[in-house]
Structure formats: structure tokens, C-alpha cells
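thought: user wants a sequence for this fold. calling inverse folding tool.
action: design(structure=
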């Protein structure tokens, strides 16, 4: 008889998604090897991760509910396989830390309370029982390439980003898209920095990173900008008479 994933998470078979997440969070924090000194904690931590990996996925859970662990891991009948993405059987990847990392939005909630060797740090307000000081992720810098015309006249650029956003439970997260709008001002130069504060990944114990776009000027086939000067570039083949071009800002003649 296979293991009972519901018993592992200490929930009933009719538990809803929010209850599954809450149960995993409670047990994972309790049995994490960095916190628990119980010699069986690593194995329990792994079992909890596998149970959550199955029960948090609607397809895996449906197969498990109908065929049990044996059917889930050994393969499912063809008549059921038409409704599922695989028939060769489920295999847990074996990395409970990965499940833990993804659940908490890419952040280790223990990083504030443990040093590099795993020893608890005394923060003078209760260690793991305290709130801790949130840390902000380092800025995320991206190049923003603009044409000479964009920098001369100004324009509006819309950029789509994907980031982790906390769910309503305040612990798990989902990847969502967001549109950032940049109003390019006339006269901006290469190197101008546009900062969107705290638009990076969200997590229960982090301050989202700032996203910074740095203006880069695209090469123009005819003009080159040097500070506030606009130079006209025209290649003259060797062997042909030199032609002098003079532009007049008053008459507009050449």
C-alpha cells in the first residue's frame, strides 16, 4: 500500500488548495533541516515536499485520488491517459529544497536568521520567533535602446516584465506579467537611468528589487550626436572631387 499524502500533510482528502498550502507552510517551516534538530527531519521534510508537489497540482492529485501512489508512479491506464499529460508515471525530482524555494517566492525565510554555517544569529528580539529585518534585493539593470529620433522628439515606451507576485496567503507566489511605461523626454542622453522602485520579485521576507533601465543610443546611418551637437556623417569616396556642404540655420539653403 502506498503512502498517504494527505496524512503526511495532516489534512483531509477534501482539503481545498488554500488548506494544502497552509499545511505545507506550517510543516515545512517546522521540519526544515536548518531549524529542526530531529534526526528524522530531513526525511520528513522530503516527504512533506513530495506530498505538496502532488496535491498542489490538480492533474497529479486527480490521478492520485483515483489510482493511489502505485498508479501515480507506475503509470495510468490509457482511458485515463487521454485526460492527462503523461502515462509513464510520476517521479518526484527528489529536491525538497526546490519545492521550499519556489513556495516562498524564491526567497529562503531562514536567511535572515542563520549565518553561512547554519548557526542561528542572535538578533536581540527572539531569533526565529521575531520578525527580523527585511532585506531588499539588489537592483535589476536593463539596457533601453532608443533611436536618435526618440531622443530628439521624445516618445513613450511600454515594456512588459514578468515577476513573482505574492498570493493572497502572503507566502506563496505566482509569476505574472506587468507593463511598465517610460515617458522618454526630449534631450535625454545615453546613460540616463529610469528607476521603477520595488517592481522586482515579491517574497514574504524581502523588499522587491528596483528595476533600472539605462538609455543606450542606437546607431544612426546619417547623424551622430556629440553632447548637444548633431553631426551629419557623409562618406566621400576617394578619387572624387571634394564637395563642401554648408548648412545655414537662417536661410535653410545649402
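)
observation: tool returned 254 residues.
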Amino acid at each position: 500500500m502506498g503512502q498517504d499524502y494527505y496524512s503526511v500533510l495532516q489534512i483531509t482528502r477534501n482539503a481545498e488548495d488554500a488548506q494544502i498550502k497552509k499545511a505545507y507552510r506550517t510543516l515545512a517551516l517546522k521540519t526544515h533541516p536548518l531549524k529542526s534538530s530531529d534526526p528524522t527531519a530531513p526525511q520528513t521534510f522530503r516527504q512533506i515536499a513530495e506530498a505538496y508537489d502532488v496535491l498542489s497540482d490538480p492533474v497529479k492529485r486527480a490521478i492520485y485520488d483515483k489510482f493511489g501512489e502505485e498508479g501515480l508512479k507506475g503509470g495510468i491506464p490509457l482511458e485515463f491517459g487521454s485526460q492527462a499529460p503523461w502515462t509513464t508515471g510520476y517521479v518526484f525530482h527528489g529536491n525538497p529544497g526546490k519545492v521550499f524555494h519556489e513556495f516562498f517566492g524564491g526567497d529562503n525565510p531562514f536567511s535572515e536568521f542563520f549565518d553561512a554555517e547554519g548557526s542561528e544569529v542572535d538578533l536581540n528580539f527572539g531569533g526565529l520567533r521575531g520578525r527580523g529585518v527585511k532585506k531588499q534585493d539588489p537592483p535589476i539593470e536593463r539596457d533601453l535602446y532608443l533611436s536618435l529620433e526618440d531622443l530628439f522628439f521624445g516618445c513613450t515606451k511600454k515594456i512588459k516584465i514578468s515577476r513573482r507576485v505574492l498570493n493572497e496567503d502572503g507566502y506563496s507566489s505566482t509569476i505574472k506579467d506587468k507593463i511598465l511605461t517610460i515617458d522618454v523626454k526630449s534631450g535625454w542622453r545615453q546613460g540616463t537611468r529610469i528607476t521603477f522602485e520595488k517592481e522586482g520579485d515579491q517574497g514574504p521576507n524581502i523588499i522587491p528589487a528596483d528595476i533600472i533601465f539605462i538609455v543606450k543610443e542606437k546607431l544612426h546611418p546619417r547623424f551622430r550626436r556629440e553632447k548637444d551637437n548633431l553631426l551629419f556623417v557623409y562618406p566621400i569616396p576617394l578619387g572624387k572631387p571634394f564637395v563642401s556642404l554648408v548648412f545655414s540655420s537662417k536661410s535653410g539653403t545649402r
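thought: summarizing for user.
answer: Here is the designed sequence. The chain is about 25% helix and 20% strand.
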